[in-house]
């Protein structure tokens, strides 16, 4: 099984980024917005030690 996307919705983006990084060790980087520019977002990359991906 592989995981392609994870949605971590939060009411405050900066607080959510800090909480996610603290829990996972992955710091999401600025990553654009949805069409229309209404939803700012961040993205991060994880690598699986079992697949080397």
* Main pleated sheet: 2 strands, antiparallel
SSE run: HEE
Mean pLDDT: 75
First-last Cα distance: 13 Å
Number of strands: 2
Low-confidence regions:
49-53
Structural class: alpha+beta
Work out the helix count.
1
How much strand? 15-25%
- Side by side, the strands of the main sheet go 1-2
Please indicate the count of domains: 1
Question: What keywords describe this structure?
Answer:
1 helix, 17% strand
Describe it.
With 53 residues, this protein is an alpha+beta fold. The protein has one domain (1-45). The protein has one helix and two strands, in the order αββ. The protein has one helix at residues 13-24, and strands spanning 29-33, 40-43. A two-stranded antiparallel ribbon has the order 1-2. A hairpin with a 6-residue loop joins strand 1 and strand 2 (40-43). The longest helix has 12 residues, at 13-24. The chain is globular. Residues 49-53 have low confidence and may be disordered.
Draw up the topology in text.
Blueprint: H1 13-24, E1 29-33, E2 40-43
Antiparallel strand pairs: 1-2
Short characterization:
It is built from one helix and two strands, in the order H-E-E. The chain is an alpha+beta fold and 53 residues long.
